[in-house]
């Protein structure tokens, strides 16, 4: 073991933690904790974001150096996902009130499940700070379990599945895709939509990145932006707020359009909704921009190419296609913690749907295979964002 490295990491952690502490103290902010009243989303201000990231990265490396290769490998918590699924299935977070104590027996009886199973599930969850056993057999909520009990979007996120033509369909004993399955079950579609809304609450997925780094400012007044698979229209509303002279059309499948929540009234003049299946020809001809946010990573190449080919007849000289998705980095070029997150997402897409995340070369190749007239413009990768802004222009 390189002794200098662990000392170097520990020193950097100590120095950076001192800076965070001094920032918190001088701004009258309390220190981080797992207490039930802790805000669920970490409210560290942006000015110390880079210092916090440096501590987390050094901390990860230090832990893994001390664990060594084998323990780092087997540390991976495969069963954690089963545990999360069981919490959802048995509604355990809602089986006792926030702020009160309960025994495993009481919780088991409230969720109609065996006490032994409840105890085993909850004790694994506790290793991730979900619930706390204050005395043997007696538990209370923590900040995370409180959010599971109270925030419907978070609860649904735990139980969410992504589009699939393989595992998900198999598990549902059907050859329908996930979206077809959802189309037949409005309650389930709503749960998925809530889960997506929760997923978007993370700072690395803020819509600001798309607003600040997309081509919106260079579009002519009155130019149309079509958000294909745009769900409830949040992206369009965020862009409309800063670029009010543009016109926005949100397209999605009928059940999603039907179940959407109303947008703020002040955007009704410029944001409209329409039913459209992106596997059929695009009905809005010659828009300035067609946006795909978090669409292509749900589909294998073959299907992405079908989606793009259905867009082609609507494109006119200079139309742009903007993709807001992960752009996988070259190996070892970004912090390990972030790279791990992006690559874990890629594997999740593979195992669930035969889909994938893509790197820059794969994005360019995908569009060229759909049609040679798609010309790559650029990838903008905001440092704090998980999603890049990838732009293509149509040239006859
Ligand atoms: C992962 S969500 C992304 C939603 C939105 N673009 C965002 O960034 O929040 C994928 C969206 O694609 C929509 N979708 C799936 N299949 C579709 C299809 N064939 N035609 C149109 N939309 C579809 C889903 O209803 C869902 O809203």
Helices and strands in order:
Blueprint: H1 3-26, H2 49-74, H3 78-89, E1 102-103, H4 104-110, H5 115-126, E2 132-135, E3 138-140, H6 143-150, H7 152-158, H8 167-171, H9 178-183, H10 186-199, H11 208-213, E4 224-228, H12 234-242, E5 247-252, H13 254-259, E6 271-275, E7 289-293, H14 301-311, E8 320-325, E9 327-328, H15 336-353, E10 358-359, H16 360-370, E11 374-380, E12 388-394
Bound molecules: S-adenosylmethionine.
S-adenosylmethionine (SAM) binds next to loops.
List keywords for this structure.
3 domains; Arc Repressor Mutant, subunit A; Rossmann fold; 396 residues; 46% helix; O-methyltransferase; 3-stranded antiparallel beta sheet; binds S-adenosylmethionine; S-adenosyl-L-methionine
Overview of the structural elements:
The chain has helices at residues 3-26, 49-74, 78-89, 104-110, 115-126, 143-150, 152-158, 167-171, 178-183, 186-199, 208-213, 234-242, 254-259, 301-311, 336-353, 360-370; strands at 102-103, 132-135, 138-140, 224-228, 247-252, 271-275, 289-293, 320-325, 327-328, 358-359, 374-380, 388-394. It has 396 residues and is an alpha/beta fold. Mean pLDDT is 86; it is low at 159-166. The strands form 3 sheets. It has a 7-stranded mixed β-sheet with strand order 6-5-4-7-8-12-11, sandwiched between helices. A 3-stranded antiparallel β-sheet has the order 1-3-2. A two-stranded parallel sheet has the order 9-10. The chain has 3 domains: 3-74, no CATH class; 78-159, Orthogonal Bundle (Arc Repressor Mutant, subunit A); 200-334 and 355-394, Vaccinia Virus protein VP39 (Rossmann fold, 3-Layer(aba) Sandwich). It binds S-adenosylmethionine (SAM). S-adenosylmethionine (SAM) binds at residues 179, 196, 200, 229-231, 235, 252-253, 256, 276-279, 293-295, 298. S-adenosylmethionine is lined by residues 179, 196, 200, 229-231, 235, 252-253, 256, 276-279, 293-295, 298. It comes from Talaromyces pinophilus. Residues 224-370 form the O-methyltransferase C-terminal domain. This is O-methyltransferase. One of its GO terms (molecular function) is O-methyltransferase activity.
């Amino acid at each position: 073991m390189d002794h200098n490295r662990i000392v170097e990491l520990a020193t950097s952690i100590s120095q950076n933690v001192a800076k965070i502490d001094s920032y918190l103290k001088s701004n009258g902010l309390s220190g981080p904790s797992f207490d039930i009243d802790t805000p669920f989303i970490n409210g560290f201000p942006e000015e110390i974001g880079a210092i916090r990231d440096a501590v987390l990265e050094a901390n990860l490396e230090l832990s893994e150096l001390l664990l060594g290769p084998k323990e780092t490998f087997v540390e991976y918590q495969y069963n954690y996902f089963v545990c999360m699924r069981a919490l959802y299935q048995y509604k355990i977070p809602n089986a006792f009130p926030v702020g009160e104590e309960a025994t495993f027996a009481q919780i088991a009886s409230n969720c109609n499940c065996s006490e032994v199973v409840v105890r085993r599930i909850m004790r694994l969850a506790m290793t991730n700070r979900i619930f706390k056993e204050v005395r043997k057999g007696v538990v209370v909520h923590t900040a995370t379990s409180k959010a599971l009990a109270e925030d419907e979007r978070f609860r649904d996120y735990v139980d969410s599945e992504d589009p699939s033509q393989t595992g998900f369909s198999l598990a549902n004993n059907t050859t329908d895709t996930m979206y077809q399955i959802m189309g037949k079950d409005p309650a389930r579609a709503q749960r998925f939509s809530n889960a997506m809304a929760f997923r978007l609450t993370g700072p690395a997925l803020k819509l600001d990145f798309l607003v600040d780094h997309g081509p919106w400012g260079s579009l002519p007044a009155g130019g149309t932006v079509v958000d294909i698979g745009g769900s409830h229209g949040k992206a369009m509303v965020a862009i409309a707020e800063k670029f009010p002279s543009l016109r926005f059309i949100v397209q999605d499948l009928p059940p999603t359009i039907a179940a959407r929540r109303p947008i703020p009234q002040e955007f009704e003049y410029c944001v409209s909704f329409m039913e459209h299946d992106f596997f059929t020809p695009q009905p809005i001809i010659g828009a300035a921009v067609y946006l795909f946010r978090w669409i292509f990573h749900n589909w294998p190449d073959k299907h992405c190419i079908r989606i793009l080919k259905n867009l082609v007849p609507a494109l006119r000289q200079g139309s742009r296609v903007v993709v807001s998705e992960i752009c996988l980095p070259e190996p070892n070029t970004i912090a390990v913690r972030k790279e791990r997150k992006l690559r874990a997402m890629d594997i999740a897409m593979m195992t669930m749907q035969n889909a994938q995340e893509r790197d820059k070369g794969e994005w360019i190749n995908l569009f060229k295979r759909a049609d040679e007239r798609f010309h790559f413009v650029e990838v903008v990768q905001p440092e704090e964002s998980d999603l890049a802004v990838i732009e293509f222009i149509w040239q006859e």
